[in-house]
Write a structure and sequence with these properties.
heterodimer, A: 205 residues, mainly alpha, 80% helix, elongated, B: 164 residues, 0% strand
């Protein structure tokens, strides 16, 4: 049995096509990529936009509360968290390389991209351990500070402290759950597809 | 108005377009996915075109881009576990199937990597070239191709004996 002769017959039989015109080719190269990594990068970009939105929102809060300078430290802490998160996220975003360079090891590139996305989501999750309780605390403090109350007096109230503790215990896990859920919706399918593609290519070794 | 680079690219693609269609037909059965993959391969090839330095033939380079793109592709629909559309259209009894049709079905059933190995081999690429394109060692390529060929030949022989 001559596999090469049979392969020639297959090429004539199975691989027929209509030639593409120059316009069709030009149209194809003007579109955006639908690769898995490109989609992941887009979604990371949306996260960045949300961060920019919140930075602008709380910066706007600074202007709105210009007659309540006691609020500034709280708002600046929030803005600081978002800025820090935004910088970390932006650096990760820049590292992602959806472009497939033929001379590079495709499997290695895919693994690196996967690692970047996973570590970004992990940073976000770990940052939540600090950010969520602080955000809740600031959220509780703002109305008191806005009213001009003495915070030491306010927080020396045991029932308020207990209420705050319960609030944190309930709300922080809920916020984690919601964050994970939203990340799974935004990234889950693409990460799973990337994992599947990597597994396929690892069969090369 | 297209630049000379775009003109060069489109001319080279048109001359070697068969490679893209071959890869697409081997790996993707869904028509919609095939259209998306065709566009994606062209896009990836265009983006990397500036790094193409004619150290290898454009056809070899394009084959590599196409394979890498397939491995990175996000299928909208899961690959059909049953026989592929085109192959299904030619499914006849084993007695009626010609050898090349059986060979095509056997190749389609292979995992993505083995598929790449055997088709590159049957296309006449040397083991060294295949190893470079897929990021494998030359010896590994040789061993795997040998095994795949033997397995396919065994399958085809058992089908032709079974049809007697």
């Amino acid at each position: 049995m001559d596999l090469y002769k049979e392969w020639e017959k297959i090429q004539k039989d199975q691989f027929t096509y209509n030639s593409s015109s120059k316009n069709e080719i030009m149209e194809a190269i003007s579109k955006s990529s639908s690769s898995v990594v490109n989609e992941l990068k887009k979604r990371l970009g949306y996260k960045l936009l949300w961060i920019v939105f919140f930075i602008l929102l709380f910066s706007g809060g600074l202007i709105w509360a210009n007659d309540r300078p006691q609020l500034f430290p709280l708002l600046l802490i929030i803005i600081g968290f978002y800025l820090l998160g935004g910088i970390v996220l932006y650096r990760q975003y820049l590292k992602l390389k959806p472009q497939i360079e033929p001379q590079n090891n495709a499997l290695q590139s895919m693994k690196e991209n996967q690692q970047i996305i996973k570590s970004t989501l992990l940073y976000e999750r770990n940052a939540g351990f600090i950010a969520f309780p602080i955000a809740i605390l600031i959220g509780v403090m703002i109305p008191f500070v806005y009213r001009g109350d003495n915070l030491l007096e306010v927080f020396s109230n045991p029932s308020l402290l207990i209420g705050l503790l319960v609030f944190v215990i309930i709300l922080v896990p809920a916020m984690f759950w919601l964050g994970n859920k939203m990340n799974d919706i935004a990234f889950g399918d693409y990460l799973r597809q990337l994992e599947s593609n990597i597994n396929d290519m690892e069969a090369l070794d | 108005m297209a630049s000379s680079s775009e003109d060069d690219f489109t001319t080279l693609v048109q001359q070697n377009e068969g490679i893209i269609h071959k890869v697409i037909n081997l790996y993707i059965d869904n028509k919609e996915d095939q259209k998306d993959l065709f566009q994606e391969i062209l896009l990836q090839a265009w983006k990397s075109f500036s790094s193409f330095q004619a150290q290898s033939a454009f056809s070899t380079w394009l084959y590599r881009v196409a394979l890498n793109t397939v491995f990175n592709f996000r299928k909208k629909q899961k690959t059909i576990a049953a026989l592929p559309e085109k192959a299904a259209a030619i499914v006849k009894s084993t007695v009626e199937q010609q050898t090349h049709e059986q060979l095509y079905l056997e190749i389609k059933k292979l995992n993505p990597v083995d598929k790449a190995l055997i088709t590159l081999h049957l296309d006449g690429y040397k083991n060294m070239e295949i190893a470079e394109m897929l990021g494998m060692s030359k010896s590994n390529v040789g061993v795997k191709i040998h095994r795949i060929k033997n397995a396919i030949i065994q399958q085809l022989k058992s089908k032709s004996y079974g049809s007697v």
